[in-house]
Amino acid sequence: MLQAVSDRGLKFSIARRSGMLRRVNRIRLVSRTDADALSQLLQTHRAFLAPWEPVRSEDYVTAAGQLADIEAALGRHEQGAAAPFVILDDDGSVAGRVTLSGIVQGPFQSCSMGYWLAEDRTGRGLATQAVAAAVEHAFTTLGLHRVEAATLLANTASQGVLARNGFEEFGMAPRYLKIAGEWQDHRMFQRLAED
Ligand SMILES: CC(C)(COP(=O)(O)OP(=O)(O)OC[C@H]1O[C@@H](n2cnc3c(N)ncnc32)[C@H](O)[C@@H]1OP(=O)(O)O)[C@@H](O)C(=O)NCCC(=O)NCCS
User: Domains of the chain, with CATH numbers?
Assistant: First the structure.
């Protein structure tokens, strides 16, 4: 089984406050106690997230729906198949999620990555820092060789996050994922451990 991550925060990134350099945890393992905060964020930012995500049921965005989602994600984490994190703002509040899923060992040693931020937390580099921490987790703690990410053709914000983290585009996958109710083409990106 893969090494589980602690819920005490994983990777440090640097934030400037009052001219001082401060180290903050940018991601930590999602917890059952995050259900209320995640439900609130998903409801508040539903219209912002909708064009970039699968269609979400009414149940999914409730606290009970989020608790069920978190429990399923933690189950996959226990099995070594996923590493589900929350993205933390400088004050420690939950700002979004980043997840490594489909973790495969053996000759592939690869996983897929997905992420989102609350709209009012965008534009400050939080996603870029969270992805950096998740990628480091993939290559160090999990010992993987490759992290893959897919974006809609028009998702320039997400492509910026990947570019700032050294991801390279390797192709276009036609009708790859059902996003916003439609099978949509995606740009495919990867980062390799030796890059
Ligand atoms: C994708 C998503 C997470 C990107 O959010 P984001 O705020 O653009 O990304 P970051 O948090 O890394 O912030 C980067 C922005 O902050 C700016 N920035 C400020 N300080 C920064 C710092 N220290 N480091 C990096 N960027 C910084 C960057 O210049 C960039 O701004 P720009 O887009 O005007 O160039 C967000 O748009 C989102 O959640 N979208 C909906 C869901 C989604 O698309 N998920 C991905 C599916 S593939």
Answer: 12-147 (3.40.630.30)
